[in-house]
Amino acid sequence: MADFFFHTLAGQLILMVLETLAVLVPLLIGVAYLTLMERKVMAAMQLRRGPNVNGIFGLLQAFADAIKMITKETIIPAGANRFLFLFAPFLTFSLAMTAWAVIPTGNGLAVANINVGILYLLAISSLGVYGMLIAGWASNSKYAFLGSLRSAAQMVSYEVSIGLVIVSVLLAVGSLNLNDIVLAQRHVWFCVPMFPMFILFFISALAETNRAPFDLPEGESELVAGFFVEYSSLSFGLFFLGEYANMILMSGMVSILFLGGWLPPLGIAPLTWIPGPLWLIAKILFCLFVFIWTRATFPRFRYDQLMRLGWKVFLPFSLLWMIATAGFLLATGLLPQGVS
Amino acid sequence: MVQLVFYVFATILVGSAAMVISARNPVHSVLFLILAFFNAAGLFLVAGAEFLAMILVIVYVGAVAVLFLFVVMMLDIDFTKMREGLQRYAPIGGVVGCILFVELVMAGLHWGMSPVMPAPITGGLGQPGGAATNTGALGNLIYTHYILLFQLCGLVLLVAMIGAITLTLRDRPMGRRQIISRQHERKRADTLEMMNLPLGQGTDANGGFIRPNDSYYVTAVPGSYGVPAAEKREPGEGDAE
Lengths: 340, 241
Fold this sequence. Notes:
The complex is a heterodimer of chains A (340) and B (241).
Chain A: H1 2-7, H2 9-45, H3 61-71, H4 82-98, H5 117-138, H6 142-173, H7 178-183, H8 195-208, H9 220-223, H10 233-258, H11 269-272, H12 276-297, H13 303-332
Helix pairs in contact in A: 2-3, 2-10, 2-12, 3-10, 4-5, 4-10, 5-6, 6-8, 6-13, 8-10, 10-12
Chain B: H1 2-22, H2 26-46, H3 50-74, H4 79-109, H5 134-145, H6 147-168, E1 177-178, H7 180-185, H8 188-191, E2 217-218, H9 229-232
Antiparallel strand pairs in B: 1-2
């Protein structure tokens, strides 16, 4: 049996499909319940009840929403570029799924444990901007176009600081492999020595996923709904799923880079009994809670404030921190060598 | 298997490159260009150059092509005018194309590895933690052996960047500018006044609101914004209250 799975082409293909499903099915269920979690948590913060009619605690609400979304009519605006209009949500959705291939849920437990895992994540997340740009342009609407222009500028700006934060983490790890990044945090999680970078990465992740307080691309007070103003039905649903999957992905990246991935907080007996994937899920849930908490707390940034924060505060600070990290590691002789 | 993957990537790459120059809509051209970049990254992966593949996607697809797309989407292109130009410039374009093609063929015929070049370092996608990864090898080459050239390249880019900023930066006299530190220094006493009024009676004062003494916005040209409240108020405006 094992021979079939590991040594024949058909077996490997079947194994690959099974591995992929093992990641995607929990992810999609997670996305469905993330919407519920968001509504419930925000309701609790605003002293409301939130969805509580469908199922106990509103547990069936997510499915009710999904069925409603699928059964609605797909509307393609006049003058829209049909192919690109329908292609954009698929692109956003599939990119959000593709990125999960490299996320390790345990020691070596990833669909693809590749050498340049972190670069792969960066590459996929930098592609995410095309879904929005194409959607905004193809729907032939000024609100959508303005929203997509904003999102493109925003994502490109914050990717710069995300890149520099990642570089300072990589300096301390000495490898681009996500597995090695987590293993390097055996003794201390990177959120302790690099606390400012942790905060900075989290804020950049908010901007990268277009979440409040940086949800300018879909700022409903000015742009109705931003780049997906013309979308309805399943194509809107795909955007929605992609956006929430991106949120979970960014939380996963925060967990892996700064919160020790699947590692327990301390390597002592009762904590090590809990399996690694559960630790990772717990950390992702924590980050998602903070995402929602932020949304319930802060008002939206103005566009120039957003750009100022990205370019004039985050970029110089992360650059300085990167140089300081390199200098510190070199001076103390802690620079990892020969790992990569 | 690897050959099949190579031919798939190569075919799409050449096809989309052809579409870049033949697509009628410039936005489609840029999107095909992105597809071409993406397939080139795939070819790098097939060749085992995983670092280059990822950097190609991050830099060219994730940043450069976004700016292309930005510019092309904003352009107002007149297609009839473009077709007029086509006939005028076709001969020159043909000549340039021919020269480039001949040069390519000549370069291809005389292609050879330098004898002093070390053996290529390979490390495939499937071997995490191999002996010498792409990243390590490239880093060693760039930052150890060719550090001066690398720094000079960076300097050239810096000059280009400064040039672009100098060309586009201008101080608009009417533009408002926010000084965040000054806003943070602002205290409640500067702007709010607590009033104890008897029930049912109003006040002639400013309703508890004090206009800040100096404006929190400044402009390049002094005085164009943030004039003191007393001067700015139109006659009659305050009397109505």
